[in-house]
Amino acid sequence: MMKQLSIVALSLALSAPAFAEKEFENHNRMMDHGDGHLMDATGGMVMGQNTDILPGGCDSIAATKEITVHAGHKYAEKFPGRMFAFDVQEYQFEPCTKLTVNFVNDDEVRHQWMMHGLPKYLYPKGMFHLEVTGPGKVSGTLIFPPGDKTYLVHCDIAQHMEKGMKGQLKIGKGDGDLPSIPGVTAYVIQDDYSDSKPEESLADTVVEEMTDMKDKVVGNNSFFSGLTVIGLAIGLILAPLLARKFKGMSAGEIFAYCIALIKDGVDLVVKLIGWLIGLVKK
């Protein structure tokens, strides 16, 4: 009897909606909340939509365009080390173009296609934002301002942009390329998948150079000279940290802090000498 109940419970659990894949949804019945903000209860959202108001400096609509943008894990396969991506990483349009974006999410998670830096008098928060939770499509329209500028388009979900879901959109000639756009521009911090030895840290480098200098000047037989070199190395490493620590402090406060620091150092040296003496006596 217990075995039969367990089988029934397992069957019910596996057939529950939580385990079922979400069907593709076309989010075309969203509620308009004003100011170009539309959304529904099933994960579709448009923010900053503008279908008819011309930005300042645009006498008319220069062109009417429509694009379809796909977002998903499979589009990152051609970019080593990336997890998410758009199917296209670069776009270019004339100033004052009216653009409709059909944003398609091919994953089971939430993705976005958004732009920042638009005129705030026309686009609340200076942003145009499309969002879909799970497989589905949402569409939104905006009118680009005049001038040559390059905009970042990206997914703002935590770590999605860092993992590759970003591109650049140029108005006119643009004003340069953005860094770290997959397949378009070089990464600011290049991924390294080699098994080469990592570079030495700053502390290791400073200590090594100071030790070499001490060997050339005083030889290897002076214990206290060695301590002096180590002290200088530590001082060089700590100097930038102390500069930030002293920022905004008065001369008296800095002096008192240094006295306390010296006292702590002396106490540490005394303890170290005591420990060394104890080792010798043994």
Report on this structure.
This protein is an alpha+beta fold and 282 residues long. The chain has two domains: 22-171, Cupredoxins -  blue copper proteins (Immunoglobulin-like), CATH 2.60.40; 202-281, no CATH class. 30% of the residues lie in helices and 24% in strands. The protein has four helices and 13 strands. It has an eight-stranded mixed β-sheet with strand order 2-3-4-10-9-12-13-7, with no helix packed on it. A five-stranded mixed β-sheet has the order 1-11-8-5-6, with no helix packed on it. A hairpin with a 4-residue loop joins strand 3 (38-39) and strand 4 (44-47). Helix 2 packs antiparallel against helix 3. Mean pLDDT is 82; it is low at 12-19.
Secondary structure layout plus pairing:
Elements: H1 2-14, E1 25-26, E2 31-32, E3 38-39, E4 44-47, E5 63-72, E6 85-86, E7 90-93, E8 97-105, E9 110-116, E10 127-133, E11 136-143, E12 149-154, E13 166-171, H2 202-218, H3 223-246, H4 251-281
Parallel strand pairs: 1-11, 5-8, 7-13
Antiparallel strand pairs: 2-3, 3-4, 4-10, 5-6, 8-11, 9-10, 9-12, 12-13
Integer-rounded radius of gyration: 31 Å
Distance between the termini: 74 Å
- Beta-strand level of the residues, as a percent range? 15-25%
Largest sheet: 8 strands, mixed
CATH topology type of the largest domain: Immunoglobulin-like
pLDDT < 50 runs, ≥5 residues:
12-19
Instruction: Report the CATH C-level class of the largest domain.
Output: Mainly Beta
Architecture of the largest domain, according to CATH? Sandwich
Specify the oligomeric state. single chain
Q: Largest sheet, order of strands side by side?
A: 2-3-4-10-9-12-13-7
Helix content: 25-40%
Structural category: alpha+beta
Number of strands: 13
Put simply, the count of helices is 4
**Shape annotation:** elongated
**CATH fourth-tier homologous superfamily of the largest domain:** Cupredoxins -  blue copper proteins
Order of helices and strands: HEEEEEEEEEEEEEHHH
Overall tally of structural domains: 2
